Amino acid sequence: MSGTGIPQTRDGRAASYDVIIVGAGFGGMYMLHRLRSLGLSARILDAATGVGGTWYWNRYPGARCDVESMQYSFSFSKELQQEWSWSERFAGQPEILAYANHVADRFDLRRDIQLETRVTAAHYDEKARRWTISTDRGETFSAQFCVMATGCLSTAKLPEIEGRDSYRGATYHTGYWPHEGVDFTGLSVGVIGTGSSAIQAIPVMAEQAAHLTIFQRTPNYSIPSRNGPMTPDYEGPWKSDYDRRRAKARTMRTGILYDASDANFGINDISAMAVSDEERRRVYEQRWATGGTSFMAAFNDLITNQESNDTASEFVRSKIREIVRDPVTAEILCPKDYPIGTKRICVDTDYFETYNRPNVTLVDLKATPIEAITPKGVRTSAGEYAFDAIVYATGFDAMTGTLMNIDIRGRDGMALREKWAAGPQTYLGLMVAGLPNLFMITGPGSPSVLSNMILSIEQHVDWLIDALAHMRASGLETIEPTPDSEVSWGEHVNEAGHRTLYVKAASWYMGANVEGKPRVFMPYIGGVGTYRQECDEVAAKGYEGFVLAPRDAPAVAAE
Ligand code: NAP
Fold it and tell me: What is the predicted pLDDT for the residue at 526?
């Protein structure tokens, strides 16, 4: 530590930048690219050995995006979107990671990306009006702005089960998968968890393992992806109409066009209760056959009207009962105690079919809970299961976990961990009062995980770049939300959440999967299009709700 209290780099100096970006995923890379156009110096710090963020870490078998690849991709470069070719309707993890690497090379980003560097702290120096960022390598960076592009699902969560460390076999977490892959051939494997990751991994692992035992606490609704190779007939119209389609997607609730050739883009703008039973069934059958998350757009009130939701939930249960041959197993796989879509809807390839295999066993933890992990395997109230390997598909400390793991301190030493003890508080999901010049990409309080993430990343970065350009042009040095604007945005986010059925499920959206985490609906469900308008209006009104302070002057509220 120096006399100023700022920790030093190995050579004794804090490396100085205009902007430090934490995270080399799609958010961090696009931010870096745009910052260069403003002429600002920036450096990305990331703990991984490569770029790609969530697609770098989540290498489990079957990992795949559930947003179609023509849409889960950057729109900022016409050349990139024309020249890149996706091989499948839904891209797999290796292809998305290859795309991330292509972006890093194509836009010459690597020279400003420092890997194998975990940010441990970010402290605001009020006198210097700069952030001091510390890393696990003992380095220190000084920056006027700090951008947390840390992802929403980047802190893997192991379950708090007694004896977890006593297990003698191999263990894996889906969100932290070995780079060299894992060969389960001939092994007896236990999988704990049945969320999106498990639902993708289980069918692939079942083909390899001698026996797969799945421990399910809560069953999930899953829709077949109907994934397949990209065809010229599909890709062509997208590429020739990309600008219009991207522009339209930005106005949609989830930022996704479910059917680009349809006049209403795949949204059936009618209540499920407004049609006959036969018509409703026909619509669900058609969505089931098309596949993917468009199932939730089959009617316009599936997420707000319990009666409507019940019809969709029952339809999926009927499909599970049709597919799974053993009626007892089928019943265990049928979700019954929360509305469809209120835990993130899953998209699969042959998930339910996998339970018809002779080498797959389902254990219902509601009936026989896990008591402990033992040196041999898993012990439930019904007995012990011995395994060669255990796969934890137990999810993430979502949206806030990664930010809370960094010691972030703002004005007057205010610690983010303390401020967010009762749940995240943000203005627009972009900034936090008391943390001047610190931005979050797709933070809690923005549509984020309820949307096409790449589209939402672009919206946040573009908005921030405009804000920074405005500040530079106006001689402004700091930006920070007022406490009042943060409170009223929080109320708006909360009210929007409570107008839906989402709050009825014990989901990671609600923080329910982490013991002791406050139950708050974290993302903003107002819709991507509405949210964009709200952000744009704030900017048009001179950054209403923010305090913008000129250089060498006390902070003043924006008019
Ligand atoms: P997740 O949805 O949180 O699922 C975790 C699973 O582990 C749940 O089934 C949970 O059961 C179970 N679990 C947790 N603790 C347990 C315990 N102590 N004992 C028994 N079971 C336990 O996590 P995820 O599957 O990794 O998915 C997280 C999110 O990542 C998804 O919702 C999605 O947003 C994203 N994702 C997307 C894709 C895609 O694009 N296709 C793929 C993978 C992930 P409970 O439900 O009872 O808590």
Answer: 97
